[in-house]
TrEMBL record, chains A, B, C, D:
Organismal lineage: Bacteria, Pseudomonadati, Pseudomonadota, Alphaproteobacteria, Hyphomicrobiales
Annotated Pfam families: Pro_CA
Keywords assigned: Lyase, Metal-binding, Zinc
Organism encoding this protein: Devosia insulae DS-56
The family this protein is said to belong to: Belongs to the beta-class carbonic anhydrase family.
Protein's name according to its UniProt entry: Carbonic anhydrase
Amino acid sequence: MDGFPAFLLDGYKSFMSDRYDPEQGRYRELADQGQSPTTMIIACCDSRAAPETIFSAGPGEMFVLRNVANLVPTFQPDGGQHGTSAAIEFAVAALEISNIVVMGHGRCGGIKAALAPDAGPLAQGDFIGKWMAMLAPVADEVSKYTLLTNKERQTMLERFSIRNSINNLRTFPYVKRLEDEGKLAIHGAWFDISTGELWVMNDEGDFYRPDV
Amino acid sequence: MDGFPAFLLDGYKSFMSDRYDPEQGRYRELADQGQSPTTMIIACCDSRAAPETIFSAGPGEMFVLRNVANLVPTFQPDGGQHGTSAAIEFAVAALEISNIVVMGHGRCGGIKAALAPDAGPLAQGDFIGKWMAMLAPVADEVSKYTLLTNKERQTMLERFSIRNSINNLRTFPYVKRLEDEGKLAIHGAWFDISTGELWVMNDEGDFYRPDV
Amino acid sequence: MDGFPAFLLDGYKSFMSDRYDPEQGRYRELADQGQSPTTMIIACCDSRAAPETIFSAGPGEMFVLRNVANLVPTFQPDGGQHGTSAAIEFAVAALEISNIVVMGHGRCGGIKAALAPDAGPLAQGDFIGKWMAMLAPVADEVSKYTLLTNKERQTMLERFSIRNSINNLRTFPYVKRLEDEGKLAIHGAWFDISTGELWVMNDEGDFYRPDV
Amino acid sequence: MDGFPAFLLDGYKSFMSDRYDPEQGRYRELADQGQSPTTMIIACCDSRAAPETIFSAGPGEMFVLRNVANLVPTFQPDGGQHGTSAAIEFAVAALEISNIVVMGHGRCGGIKAALAPDAGPLAQGDFIGKWMAMLAPVADEVSKYTLLTNKERQTMLERFSIRNSINNLRTFPYVKRLEDEGKLAIHGAWFDISTGELWVMNDEGDFYRPDV
């Protein structure tokens, strides 16, 4: 193992002077009293779509799960180790957050892999194929949409995937119950890396650009 | 579903003027050419410990997996849907990153749950207990360290957990091989929310505060 | 028949003072020398999407065909009275224009009718159903895209229809030959009435927002 | 295909700042509530005679059909694809417009072709001859009016054509019925490109210059 990457230490130094020092009181308070974020974001690991950056979030504001392609599985209490489900449970039951945002983004490598499961460097892999298989029924369906260009198909699957994850979220009994009681709101969002545009989802599942 | 949270739209507006506009060329380049981050960070969902914030990372720099307590399971190619393993495979095989940093933090709720599996709001939950059980051998061991105060025990388990995750990372054959070939470096880091201190791990597994 | 509508006369009066008088020389020149527009626009009759308005076009700049849903039929020299084909022939053979733009728009009533041919006030009509039947193979196909919301399906058919019209344009032998010779360029565009956004089509058939 | 024409993008940019921005509320309302124009204009494709320009029309005011020489065929419910008839049906049956204006103009190239069907670049064409043949009985008749100069003959055919189209409009049963019921008014207009003069038709079919 080499030394700790210098660019990370440089970044940390900037953080300390630019962010931590001015917000020192906030960090201490958050340490003493524990976190109480109102919002959980389920986002992708992609290096170009960090939720804290896109939403200018300060410390303590967002509980952030990130996996490949921001997928949510259905509720499967089978005793297995479900990291995404564990994070959802923690956010809802322990933190009592009031919003969950499933946030996708353009040019997602995971979605691309779902559309071409037999191509690319991950075709023979052990995990990506299995992970994205969660989306296989949707990906198979969209692969039949022959009038779409490749780019349109990718974008549509990114959106279908967000709607699919939101449907899956509602298979968690406590999520469903709290949403029905008006105590938890579920949202969808899609970020366009190229243009910086943010699209959010309405009740019909359509994406639109909100006024900001 | 209510409207999209206003504070997120406000944050997005700030992002557009403060970050996206000055870095527009960078975002477009990242969209056109794809991401090529050099570093993967495996971090916790905790709202107080966002890696991009702590390392002042710009777009495209970090591929970031976040789950509860920044755990890495062992290599289990059993056909199941392993989100964390899928992200590791994607980072190593598709993105060919050269650094993996497992980053923990102080006052971690997941670690606290691992130390008291029969207490708290998640004791009867479906997923958190199972997820943190990955750390049960280590947690059971540290619970016998009767000379530690509760706070020391929590901090020690946060650190043991980072070392445990790093050991588990090395059960992935391609991670092990690339590390042996000097093409991939694995690091540990721990962030103290209260003081803003960053501690990093050396080759012996010891944590120290680097000069910055 | 009542008198000529007063609001049209009011509008004409404004035109004379605001547009004709300042451009009088241009109008006289256009009358004396004939029109020589460089561009043909094939657009919809919709009252919300006038091409001269959207492109701020002056007199003599655009030869504009408008029919319901901006459709182009295939080349059918069967002796029938094909108004759209006549306009294309006039633009290409007599005016020797160098650009054809097929321009669609959001919330198109004709496209809506194509998606629901058995509903609405036109279901029993004599002509709309037949006219939109030109798009039936595409509309039937997109009606199978069950993952799309109604709004997405409408937007996608608006775009598919533009691509379909462009393909049909290329069945006109002189259009094809001139395009191959680099003397005629064919473009697609889509206008969003709600936001004012203009999207144009690239060589892959994808729509994007150009920098303006 | 080359890039999208720059002059169109420039025009669009002007539209956005000069027209869309001040009328943004109107555009959004028109998008949300649908169009409800009171008037249909049947005009020529000619680049010098755009109805929205001549009548200073705002968004949502005019449903505009444009074909070569603003012709209306007779009612022919033969199952063929009649674009002009489809637009009329859409305007009357779906939009319930209350005015139809057939608008011709001076120096019309289509009318010129009708007067000299064996000359000019379109003589051997596939569609223009057939299209203008709709006007052949009228054109043949006017060609016998040997006392007219060529310029007078052109102008007279432009006017005869408007009257002919209006007669043909009345062969559509629903047009006739609504006109008889006083719910739909039919108008004729003729625009002189050279002088900017607008002439409108009275009940006797005479054209006169209205006071404005």
